[in-house]
Amino acid sequence: MSVLFAIATGIMFGMGIYQLLRRDLIKAAFGFYILFTAINLFLLAAGAFEGTVPAYVDEQGRVVGGTSSDPLVQALILTAIVISFGTYTLLLSFIVLASRRFRTVDSDEIDDLIR
Amino acid sequence: MDNPLFIGVIFVPLLCAALGLLIGRYRTLQHLLIFGGGVIAWLCSLLLLAANFESGVQIYRLGGWPPPYGIVFVADKLSAVFAAMATTVVMAGLLYTLGCKDKCVTYPAFMPLFATMGVGLSGALYTGDIFTLFVFIELMVVSSTALVAVSDNRLGLEAAIKYLFISAMGSLFLLLAIGSIYTTFGTLTIADIARKLATGERPLLAQAAAVMLTCAFLLKSAVFPFHFWQPDFHTTAPTPVHAVLSSVVVKVGVYGLMRMVTTLFIAEAPVIQNLLVVLGVIGIFFGSLGALRTYDAKRMLAYSTFGQIGFILVAIGWGTPLALVGALVYAVNHSFIKSALLMLTGVVSSRTYGKTATKREIGGVGKGMVLTSILYLLGGMALAGIPPLNGFISKVALIQGGIEAQGWLALGLAVAAGLITLQYMIGTWSLLFQQPPDEGVKAKPYGDAQYAPLFLISLCVIFGIYAAPLIDVATRTVADLGDPTVYIRAVFGG
Questions:
Q1: A114 with B155: Cβ contact below 8 A
Q2: Radius of gyration of chain B (CA)
Q3: Which residues in chain B touch residue A53, judged by CB atoms under 8 angstroms apart?
Q4: What is the pTM of this model?
Q5: Of B160, B97, B136, B18, which is closest to residue B346 (Cα–Cα)?
Q6: ipTM of the complex in this document
Q7: pLDDT tens by residue, B457-477
Q8: Do the chains contact at B155 and A83, CB–CB below 8 Å?
Q9: Domains of chain A, each with CATH number or no CATH
Q10: Does the distance separating the beta carbons of A83 and B182 come in below 8 Å?
């Protein structure tokens, strides 16, 4: 299962980096979001299969419910999703403003326009 | 054991920002409320610094959870010094905003965003948990990007998009590094990671995490291969924001690197430090030469920051105790000098009709502004390192460190670059305040208020004439950094 996760994370990383390097700002913003999801997947894989002993134990120090997965990474992912969502929204709103101001979302053309 | 002063530094300004958004319609009230929050944060951080020197490392456990499980705020001497510096400059920035005539200052969200940027800054410096560090850095990045995007300068939007892309990439790699560290050591508390790293365990993933952390911090402080966004982003920012960005926000990366080489990755430190010396020297040269040949007085100071961060990195790279004292003194002094100079440039450029600082339009505008002229000259001399100002003290501390570390090549280059600093500062000073204005350039009778630069320049003069306390603080900080168990023991309360 963790091999599948590794392959999926790798593919998403590749997609994200490729998109991020496009000239079109909207596609680059998509690339940013794909990359963030890839990292969330990596965090999930870190906790789900080979996590260390979870923080929640009973009075005798035993792990509750056998080999449960690590709850902390899920909390991290939740926080990371909120942050990435906020950043992504801000980025898209900037791109909307730029497209109104410059009449294009091609980063090279914007670069020419501001010179 | 929990010190409630952390609430004053982090939660009070955050609360003021939230309340400020609600009363956005009453602008004066909102500005005063948020400035009050900034002053409280400043006083609390100074008290934390004092408490540190009286009774050792101060901590605050959020919700009372013990450290490896809960989030903990830690103010050891390094954090406390950096945070005291940061809140001082943020407070001065808020003070400048009160008297600023820019249009963007009148937007109801401007001051709250400024406050959250300051909270992100001091939170990132105080936190003892690397995931919380990521959250605070993101808070800082998002607020500062929004502030630059609404700038009066129309190029601000483009610079903000560029910065948000690059900085988001940096944050992604920070998150990846955090994930790798958590996978390896099963903990996010800095003290716990340091304890586990000290046992000598070195999985490959932890080394990859060290590389990614170094890159993320280099990107945050705009060091050589990651610096391309910095001049554009800083130049287009509104003046008070520029003053904070160019002086203390770039220091978060410096703080992170210092924390890495002294607390976390001590075994890998020589590799990181060699890298820092090389990148620092490149930064000194690119920055100084870039500043010399620029067409804009604000952009010149942005390039200059790039060079000055190089000096600090070189000193961290030398890594001897004396060099680290130099780095710390340099970082504190540079923050005050640079923010003051930026505010003074802003004061002058607020009197031009185009509100720009391009040398063509700003030349001679400051003629007749006696106080601004004197303050700018003092700041310029401090930046170049001329006695009796604080820049001289930091240069001396740095050079002593270099002689002790025997880094002759880097030292020679650093001294040569100092002369270039003198050249461009004096050149710009005479351009702004001495030469007669160009044909058709007219100055407005009123501009921004200059209480904030007055405050910062007086700090520069005080720290130049009476430097003993600052040197003493830096020496004791570095003495503590030499023993990472001080930090670890304080967090776990043993």
A1: yes
A2: 21
A3: 186
A4: 0.92
A5: B97
A6: 0.86
A7: 888 888 888 888 888 888 888
A8: no
A9: 2-114 (1.10.287.3510)
A10: no
